[in-house]
Amino acid sequence: MLEEKGLAFEYREYTEQPLAADELKDVLxxxxxxxxxxxxxxxxxxxxxxxxxxxxQLVALMAEHPTLLQRPIGVLGDRAVLxxxxxxxxxxx
Length: 93
Hints:
Layout: H1 21-31, H2 41-46, H3 55-64, E1 73-76, E2 79-82
Antiparallel strand pairs: 1-2
């Protein structure tokens, strides 16, 4: 869809190149939200998270277990959007 709109993008395979904790903090800042807002509940339950984790703990866990992070996330400069639905990514154009 993005290519159809003439928008170039670079894809990063999150399981092969997971975001480091500092990168996650930067992306969360650009999204304007905290780690709980992008936490995949199904994967959190699988890891036994109970909802009492601090933001710092969640960011560290997301860096260690990238499937905890909702995706895709589009980033352009100082802005980011969660790509669910994928049409949200067009907001970056």
